[in-house]
Amino acid sequence: MLQPPHQPLPFAAVPAQRTPAREDDAGPWHSDAACRRDEAGLFFAPSKEPTAARLAREEAAKRVCARCPVMVECQEHALMQPEPYGVWGGLTAAERRVALARRRRRDIELTAAATTAEHIAAAG
Ligand code: SF4
Q1: Residue 121's CB: how many other CB atoms inside 10 A?
Q2: For 74-92, how does the pLDDT look when each residue is reduced to its tens digit (9 = 90+)?
Q3: pLDDT tens for residues 11-62?
Q4: Which pLDDT does position 28 carry in this prediction?
Q5: What's the CA gap between 22 and 77, in Å, rounded?
Q6: Is 34 in the pocket of ligand 1 (CB under 6 A)?
Q7: Could you tell me the maximum CA-CA distance found in the chain, to the nearest angstrom?
Q8: Ligand 1 nearest atom to the CA of residue 62, by list position
Q9: Residue 123: which residues within 8 A CB-CB, separation 6 or more?
Q10: Could you tell me which residue ranges the 4Fe-4S Wbl-type domain spans (predicted)?
Q11: Which of 58, 54, 55 shows the shortest CA–CA distance to 66?
Q12: How remote is the CA of residue 107 from the centroid of ligand 1, in Å?
């Protein structure tokens, strides 16, 4: 897993301690991340976070993502890894799971359509 722009806090209840992004591992998008200084710890849940607090924190993180110049790259990274925790590219972990399921379904449908087209072409 790459060094994230924001530090994961899956088991901690303290604000994130940010470290410089590693461009060599993550690509140039990493250094432009709007969340490089996540002093508020918006992007990962502290342990035992109440639902209302989680929803408010995730919305605040998404507002940061919405003005981030590398949101598309970040989102694609998080989908391809896939990153299991935190807000990445404006999506929560649950939203990424839905996006990945849609992508897999679309890929299956495209493959099936291509196979059908090949059979029709072969039949002449
Ligand atoms: S899109 Fe969000 S999570 Fe990704 S680098 Fe930008 S601010 Fe950070």
Answers
A1: 8
A2: 999 999 999 999 999 999 9
A3: 333 233 333 333 445 567 888 999 988 878 999 999 999 999 999 999 999 9
A4: 78
A5: 14
A6: yes
A7: 66
A8: 2
A9: none
A10: 34-98
A11: 58
A12: 26
